[in-house]
Amino acid sequence: MSRWCAFSTPDDPAGQVRAVGGDPVSVRGRHALGLLDGPGIADGPFAVGELTAVGEVTLFNAAWLRARLGADMPPDCADGELLLHCYARFGLDGIAAADGMFALAIADGDDLVLIRDHVGTRTLFHARAGNGWAASTSLRALHRWPTLRTGLHLPAVRSFLTFAYLPGRETLLRGIHEVLPGHCIRLHGDGTMTEETYWEPIEVEDTRSAADHALELRELLEDAVARRLPAGDEVAVLLSGGIDSSLVTALAAKLHDQRVHSYSISFGGATPNELAYSGLVATHCNTEHRVLTVPGETVASRLAETVSLLDCPVGDPLTVPNLLLAEAVAADGIRVVLNGEGGDPVFGGPKNLPMLIFELSRDDPSPEARALAYLDSYRKCYGDLPVLLSPDVLTALAAAPPLTDLLAPYLRQGRMTGLLNQLLHTNLRTKGAHHILTKVERLTAASGLEGRAPLFDRAVIDHAFRVPGRFKLAGTSEKWILKQAVRDLLPATIVDRPKSGMRVPVQQWLSGPLRELGHDLLLGSSARARGLFREDTIRSWLRGDGALLPRQGGKLWLVLSLELWLRSFEVGP
Fold first, then answer.
1. Which pLDDT band, with edges at 50, 70 and 90, does 213 fall under?
2. Fewest beta carbons within 10 Å, which of 46, 48, 566, 572?
3. Could you tell me where the DSSP H helices lie in 146-203?
4. Ramachandran region of residue 232, left (φ > 0), alpha (ψ -120 to 50) or beta?
5. For residue 262, which phi and psi values (nearest 5 degrees)?
């Protein structure tokens, strides 16, 4: 289990690898590639001609890629080597043809080439300091680079408090940037860089009938699930009882020749849950089903550890339960776990409804107006920033680019012409890539698992943007075409029920087992020295002054998650 780092510098590149805790595995000229201890599947070096690479690579169409490359390809080469062969033979077209989860670094002449998978499952970061470049799948490794004088990046604090994740290239560490999914970055020896997009979903007008679209989508879903099933091994599925995880469970049970295990979460007590639905699906699909109860005391005891596993913080109260589920799957001896993530950002879930309602009444046609409404629809801390952030931080942020710059490119006429597809494109490239996928990847990897998301399959996404909007959102029926494609697989109770989502008892945790931790962290000397927040606002939120909104606990959760992450990375004032 490991991750990788890469340096391109004339000043002892191998020494730079060691300085961040890595083991150099290839040193050629100005380039050094290394492996790091930590949860991941990094491997290498791989060599093809004059190219050398390291990577975290899992391919789901390896057999097809080998056939395309020809008979001289060794049948048992590692996925990372196979992907390097694709790049060496076909360039970025070869990368675009791959389907999988990968972050790859290639030493190519004087350039260090960085490639992140189509949808952003695996993280990849880069930084420049002195006269050299550094890259890694681990943000923590780059934070340790002595040459880099980094520190807290305040615009990213504002972004995190608005979105509950970081939606673009920025990280919380100044000078360290994330490679976007579907992108290739060339870091040149002269200190410049170039960026290319090798894949982006494209809206295509396809006037076929709903039945034809549903039939093709069903075939693509079956193929996506089948290619993610571990040959000869049992598989797990995280089953919430919603349509997305249920259809993945049903397809896994239909297509796999091994036992399928399903796992659900309960928070105990009177907290509303979906266990009746997940139990119905498990019985219908004949899975080995297990319900994991997660008490608030466990969340409190494991929260700091869980947050520290994430390269970028995620203000999602399901992080600890997600980690506990991964640990339970691993303890049962299973190494691949499927999930139903992707249905909402790819096919149109309820998060789009506030924007569609806004569109009916807006009088400002600009993409910036749409972007501002999108920020408001998140209902995180965006509206509270003037009273939450300290005066010094607000002053420092006055000249920062507006948050709408992160969204407006997706919300204007261009690649996507219809509003629904613009929203789905936004969701896919922001929340999908920087929250959903990376959270699952880090928390499953920490338990020695591979988490795989069939609904984020590249071909499934391409088809989704061929489906007319009226088939994705049919009246008030969300993800209608997805439901039609799998209607025969599941009970009608599952297919036709409205989305309710799991109720996470955040407020109970914050006023119960997390109360003392929250007060100690958010009002402690470290937080005060950092000076990010107004103490009176934090005290008011902790006391629960006034008529609390249902999401007030979620806002406190964001602030607490951020403070824990900053402490874990030892980010000072």
1. very high
2. 572
3. 154-163
4. left
5. -125, 150
Asked whether the beta carbons of 328 and 226 are under 8 A apart, the reply is no
Amino acid of residue 172: L
| CA-angle at 6, arms to 5 and 10, nearest 5° | 145
Question: Residue type for 152, please?
Answer: L
For the segment 462-521, what is each residue's pLDDT rounded down to a tens digit?
999 999 999 998 877 889 999 999 999 999 999 988 766 668 899 889 989 999 999 999
**Number of other residues whose CB lies within 10 A of the CB of residue 104:** 28
List the one residue out of 338, 301, 339 whose CA is nearest residue 320.
Answer: 301
Answer whether 225's CB lies under 8 Å from 338's CB: yes
Cα dist. 286→14, 206, 261, 281 in Å? 53, 37, 9, 8
Give me the count of residues in the chain: 573
Q: Are 431 and 316 in contact (CB under 8 A)?
A: no
Q: Which two tokens stand for residue 329?
A: 């799957």
Sign, CA torsion 514/152/104/426:
positive
- Residue 70 to residue 17: CA distance in whole angstroms: 36
DSSP helix/strand/coil, 105 = strand
Alpha helices in 414-551 (DSSP H): 419-427, 437-445, 458-464, 469-472, 480-485, 492-496, 506-511, 515-522, 525-530, 535-543
With H, G, I as helix, E, B as strand and everything else as coil, classify residue 372.
helix
pLDDT tens digit sequence for 146-181: 999 999 999 999 999 999 999 999 999 999 999 999
Pairing of strands 473-474, 477-478: antiparallel
Give bridge partners of residue 451 from the DSSP assignment. 337
- Cα–Cα distance, 77 to 59 (Å, whole number): 12
Q: At what angle do helices 154-163 and 552-568 cross, to 10 degrees?
A: 140
The predicted-structure confidence for 317-341, as pLDDT tens digits, reads as follows 999 999 999 999 999 999 999 999 9
Q: Which of the four pLDDT bands, split at 50, 70 and 90, describes residue 6?
A: very high
Residues 56, 137 contacting (CB under 8 angstroms)? yes
Residue 19 neighbours by CB distance under 10 Å: 17
